[in-house]
Structures are given as C-alpha cells and as structure tokens.
C-alpha cells in the first residue's frame, strides 16, 4: 500500500450531504462531513485477509462496481502503481460493533474504511456503499470520470436478526434463476433470510431421494393447470449456496399436516380419513387435506423427508407449516406438531411453524410465525417462543395494492405501498414487545403469479419497505421521508430490470 504515494490531484468537490442520500434501510446514525470520495479507476479495494470471507465480500463489491460503473477495481492486488484511493474492508473486534451484522463506514476524501466484526456485517456495509454510488459519473471535476460518494460516517446495526421474505414455489413453480434474481434484490436491501414454501396441495417442489414419487407425481402440477416442476437436490443446494454467498439463510418449509394433497396423492398411505380424497389439484381452495397423525409410517416418512432436506440446509431452521389444517381433529393436530417437532430436533434444526402451532405444547426454542391470530402469538410469547411477525393484513406481498392493480388476492384487504410501510411489528399485537420478536417476514404466495415478472410486480416496491421495518429503529420510520428515498430506487430497479408496481402514492424519479 506504500505504492499509493504518487502525486494526488486536489479535486474540489461540490458540497455533499451524506445524511440526505436515499439509503434504504435508513442507517442507525449518519454524520455528514460535506466532502466526497471520488471513485475512479485509481481506486483499489483491500480487505482483511485473516478471514477469507472478507476477501469474498471485497470481490463481491468489485463485481458490483464493475457492473454499475464499468470500473475494474483490484481486490488485494498489490501492484496498483497508480493507486490513489482506497476502499478498505476491515475485520474489527471493536465493542461498538454490537451484532454480527453491525458495521461502520467512514468515507473520507482518499479512503473508505468499512469496519465489521463478521463478513456478514461487511456484506451489509457494502450494500450501503453501493447505494451511495451514483448511477452517473461526474466528468467535469477532473480529466476522467469520477463517481462522487458523499463523505461522512455511518454507524449501523439491524433492529432484528431475522429479516425475511417467503416465496411460495408450490402454487406456481419458479425457476432457479427466478429465485436467484429475487435473492439479489433481497441482498441489496439487507435481508438475511429467504423462506421457501416447498410443498402445498397443488405441488411438491423438492426432490426427496428416498420417496421419488413426491416429485414424479406430486411435482407435476400447479395452480391453473401448468406443468409444475421441482428442484433437484443439486439445484436446491445451488440456491442455498447462492443465498449463502449473499449472507442469506434459506429456511425450507414442508407444510403439514394440512396443505398436503400433493404428497398424499404421491403416497396414499399418508392420507387422513377425514380429508378430501387426493387428486391433482389446480384450484386455490385451502384446508381440505391432511396427513394421518395416528400412523407410525407417516412419521418414518417424515423422518426421511426432514432428514434429507435438513442435510442440505445449513441454516438453523426447519419450517413445518402447520397452518389451516381445518380437517385435522384438534387432538390429532396437536399430537402431530409435537411429534414432528421431535423429528426436526433430531435433525438438529429449530422448528418454525405458522401461528397455529402455538396451540400445541411446543419447545420454547421453537419459533412461531404470526400470520393471522393474535391469540396464538400471545400463547407463543407465554411459552417463551420467539415470533416472526408477518401479519397478512400488513405484510402479505400477495395482497393486491388497490382495486386497480393486477395480480394478487384481497382476502386480508388491500395493501397499498404506504399501508405496507406504516406499521410497527413491535406494537402490532398488544402484549407482544420487542423481546418476543425474532424478526419480520413478508411472504409472497403465488396462486395468482406464475413467472418472475409477475412475482416482481407484487413484491416491488413493497418488499423494500419491509427491509426498512426489519432493520431501522422505529423512530426512523416515517412515510413522508421514506417515500422520497423509495422514489430514488428507480435507477437500481431499472438497472436490475425489476418490474415494480408504479404506485401513484410515490413520485417516482423517472427520467
Ligand atoms: C397462511 O397464509 N395460510 C399461512
């Protein structure tokens, strides 16, 4: 790095204001210093080398800078003869970095220093940096293009350690590339979890080697009569690894004992006598299917299924669904949840389930996902279980925006962009407070969408608001301030070719 002591030209930057930049989620603390860092071909990226994951974060930044600006910045390459400016991604054990995802960003005239305890923190930090790089270079300040990044200091940490979106790949199947494109956008807005709803009445989407008919039979259908599809275990592992490269954990869900028509169609011994006879289902009804909670063979089947998926899911969680088992007798439902929890734990995972599972006597380490019932959420909190907050009325991405928008349903109401943003997980249910909450999730059910373009129409721009609800402190949440920053996401959304709903509530920054 001593090589960088070449003659530096003094650039007279126009006055900048870091605190006025359209960052989402809004950082915890931003202190502007009025000057700027000029990103150009003379910039190099260096990282701590004690942890190879930091160098990987540096390469990720370099690649993204290249696709945004065309600049090719070396990472830890010592032969930078014309090095003038430095971005340093530093592993730091500072006590000020309280959570694994905390980071500090110091932007000065000649250097950018990013401090983080873990590579995950560094990864969140480079998303902030990427959001500060303008789309257009400044070509007037010096004899070459310069991307002007406002100077100052950002100190940042997430409100919740679990910030997630769910994708229902069961009602309609989405390809690996469609899922990866969604992961890219989630990463940009600092999500750290992707929940995949891998099975439902209309389709089974993950290869289980010991039970091949699940995909051969159960995978060949979807809502509306399309051909369905499924991920081989190799494809699923590819999604998991792609997410992990972006410090995003995949939470696999096999929904049961209800929502299991496609499984029971594949293996009729699973079928519960009180449920509707399995057949190929392409409609949107719910609540008519169930596994038989009384049969030992059902649990040995589930031991195989959960075991195979757990083995290729490095994250700590396994989601068992548990919602809308309307034809399962309550005593059978409770028996089922308690037995499946043991299987999940045997495979070294923590059980997650939709809020109905709180009716069973579950382990306090199991996690309850509030989607519908405040009573169930309170039961979970009483039990000492943490909650994932995703109320249908506020956080379901498949609810229509308004009466004129395309796609989506409205059984939980319309969710315009402001309504999706204007609520606080911490005060949503009386009696539930921050210490009961693991985090927030925005689920996207796919009854009415069948490709990436339609997926994006429902998810964007609302998912960007849930990113802020999950990350930023409650006193930073302000619709008037947020909507201006949201409007400024257009260059990113356009560059990524993301099909967002141009809600009239936002004055979009279009050319
Ligand atoms: C759900 O929406 N049935 C969890």
Descriptive overview:
The protein is α/β, with parallel strands linked by helices. It folds into 2 domains: 2-156, Chitobiase/beta-hexosaminidase domain 2-like (Chitobiase, domain 2, 2-Layer Sandwich), CATH 3.30.379.10; 162-495, Alpha-Beta Barrel (TIM Barrel), CATH 3.20.20.80. Helices cover 30% and strands 18% of the residues. The chain is built from 15 helices and 16 strands. It has helices spanning 52-69, 119-132, 176-188, 213-216, 233-245, 261-266, 296-311, 330-346, 374-383, 392-395, 417-421, 452-459, 462-471, 479-487, 490-495, and strands at 29-39, 43-47, 85-91, 103-107, 111-116, 147-156, 162-168, 193-197, 199-200, 203-204, 249-256, 317-321, 350-354, 367-370, 387-389, 437-444. The strands form 3 sheets. Strands 7-8-11-12-13-14-15-16 form an 8-stranded parallel barrel, surrounded by 7 helices. A 6-stranded mixed beta sheet has the order 1-6-4-5-3-2, covered by helices on one side. β4 (103-107) and β5 form a beta hairpin. α1 (52-69) runs parallel beside α2 (119-132) and α7 crosses α8 (330-346). The two termini are 41 Å apart. The model is unreliable at 1-6 (pLDDT under 50). The structure holds acetamide (ACM).
Q: Count up the helices.
A: 15
CATH architectural designation of the largest domain? Alpha-Beta Barrel
Count of individual beta strands? 16
Query: Regions with pLDDT < 50 over 5+ consecutive residues?
Result: 1-6
Provide the number of structural domains. Answer: 2
Apparent shape: elongated
CATH superfamily of the largest domain: Glycosidases
The residue-averaged pLDDT reads 96
Strand-pairing-aware structural class: alpha/beta
For the CA atoms, what is the radius of gyration?
24 Å
Pfam families: Glyco_hydro_20, Glyco_hydro_20b
Keywords: Glycosidase, Hydrolase
Protein name: beta-N-acetylhexosaminidase
Catalytic activity: Hydrolysis of terminal non-reducing N-acetyl-D-hexosamine residues in N-acetyl-beta-D-hexosaminides
């Amino acid at each position: 790095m001593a090589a960088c002591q070449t003659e530096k030209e003094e650039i007279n930057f126009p006055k900048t204001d870091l605190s006025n930049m359209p960052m989402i989620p809004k950082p915890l603390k931003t202190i502007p210093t009025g000057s700027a860092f000029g990103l150009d071909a003379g910039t190099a990226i260096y990282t701590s080398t004690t942890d190879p994951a930091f160098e990987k974060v540096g390469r990720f930044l370099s690649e993204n800078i290249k696709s945004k600006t065309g600049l090719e910045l070396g990472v830890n390459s010592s032969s930078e003869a014309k090095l003038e400016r430095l971005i340093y991604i530093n592993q730091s054990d500072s006590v000020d970095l309280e959570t694994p995802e905390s980071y500090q960003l110091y932007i000065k005239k000649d250097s950018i220093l990013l401090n983080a305890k873990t590579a995950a923190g560094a990864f969140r930090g480079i998303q902030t940096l990427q959001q500060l790089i303008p789309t257009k270079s400044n070509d007037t300040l010096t004899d070459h293009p310069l991307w002007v990044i406002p100077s100052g200091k950002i100190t940042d940490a997430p409100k919740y350690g679990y910030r997630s979106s769910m994708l229902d790949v069961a009602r309609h199947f989405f390809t690996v590339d469609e899922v990866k494109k969604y992961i890219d956008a989630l990463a940009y807005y600092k999500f750290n979890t992707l929940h995949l709803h891998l099975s439902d009445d209309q389709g089974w989407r993950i290869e289980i080697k010991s039970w091949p008919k699940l995909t051969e039979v159960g995978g060949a259908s979807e809502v509306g009569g399309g051909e369905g599809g499924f991920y081989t275990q190799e494809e699923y592992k590819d999604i998991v690894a792609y997410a992990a490269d972006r410090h995003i954990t995949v939470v696999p869900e096999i929904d049961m004992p209800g929502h299991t028509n496609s499984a029971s169609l594949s293996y009729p011994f699973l079928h519960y006598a009180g449920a509707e006879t399995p057949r190929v289902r392409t409609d949107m009804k719910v609540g008519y299917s169930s596994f038989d909670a009384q049969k030992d063979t059902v649990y040995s089947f589930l031991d195989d299924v959960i075991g195979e998926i757990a083995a290729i899911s490095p994250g700590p969680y396994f989601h068992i669904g548990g919602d809308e088992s309307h034809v399962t007798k309550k005593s059978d439902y409770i028996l089922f949840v308690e037995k499946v929890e043991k299987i999940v734990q045997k495979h070294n995972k923590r059980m997650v389930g939709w809020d109905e599972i709180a009716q069973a006597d579950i382990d306090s380490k199991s996690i309850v996902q509030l989607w519908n019932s405040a009573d169930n959420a309170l039961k979970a909190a009483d039990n000492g279980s943490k909650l994932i907050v995703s109320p249908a009325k506020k956080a379901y991405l498949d609810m229509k925006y308004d009466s004129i928008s395309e796609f989506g349903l409205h059984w939980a109401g319309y969710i315009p962009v402001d309504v999706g943003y204007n609520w606080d997980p911490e005060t949503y249910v009386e009696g539930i407070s921050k210490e009961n909450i693991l985090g927030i999730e925005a689920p996207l059910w796919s009854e009415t969408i069948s490709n990436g373009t339609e997926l994006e129409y429902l998810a964007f721009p609302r998912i960007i608001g849930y990113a802020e609800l999950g990350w930023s402190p409650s006193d930073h949440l302000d619709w008037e301030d947020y909507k201006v920053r949201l409007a400024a996401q257009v260059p990113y959304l356009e560059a990524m070719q993301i099909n967002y709903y141009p809600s009239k509530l936002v004055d979009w920054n279009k050319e």
